[in-house]
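*Target chain*
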Amino acid sequence: MIVFMGTPAFAKPILEMLIEKKYPVGLVVTQPDKVVGRKKELEMSEVKKVALEHGIEVFQPIKIKDSYQYILDKKPKLLITAAYGQILPKALLEQVKAINVHGSLLPKYRGGAPIQYALFNGETKTGITLMEMVYKMDAGDMIEQVIVDIDPKDNYGTLSAKLSIAGRDLLEKRIDDILNGTYEKIQQDESQVTFAYTLKFEDERLKFFESSEWNINRLRGLMPNIGAHFMIDNTLVKVFDMEESDIISLRPGEIKVNRKEIFIGTKTKTLKLLEIQQESKKRMFVKDYLNGQNLFKDGGFIHE
């Protein structure tokens, strides 16, 4: 039996491939349902939806380190993880062979946010690493890698989708070798390790004393759903779309406003905000936002 462990949309095509190709997935482990929206409705993960559609048992421990015995009792031959979202306990990894479909070219970007950090850093290439799991974050031996190009217009959503398909195809190519133990392993070069830790709120902040490119890349890594943010007059403003502008030159953090446009200076080029959401208000295009009362004063500054 195979136990599949994953949560977001990235993991969905990988699980679907295993089911379609009739590999014996007997248990799907995913994160607990989340409370979302003003109505505080429970939302299940993309992986859970697939499992339920195919009649596969779903297990959703709050903390896998306290509940892994349930998995061991199933006596699986293999664990396959893809963006599960929790660190697997050492006792589980010591007793069951586990592989991971990781969204970077290891040893670069070990951790929970490799796709976001590839975009944050303006990478032009990333990829998938199929690897063995050990009790050290993303440090196991590699089975195979595949390179994926990053388009200048890619954001987290589009790049994650591309990597998901690449991961699905790579796993399909190698899973029989993995199940049979007929593959060579490649050790990671520890001198080349970088990390992409799970994002905190502070990591989602725009910094106008950095370059315009830095800010554009920060937003790319947070779209389409999260958005980047900054503070003005002690009020949070989220940004969902912006672009560089050569129309006007402003100092870092300086604001220029007209009836339909908001410009903010950076260390390099000026940024033009296109879609924003003021705290406690709805998401709006800037031209609509400026029709009412707003936070932005022409000639003002956003301070770091």
Q: What stands out?
A: Residues 156-180 form the longest helix (25 residues).
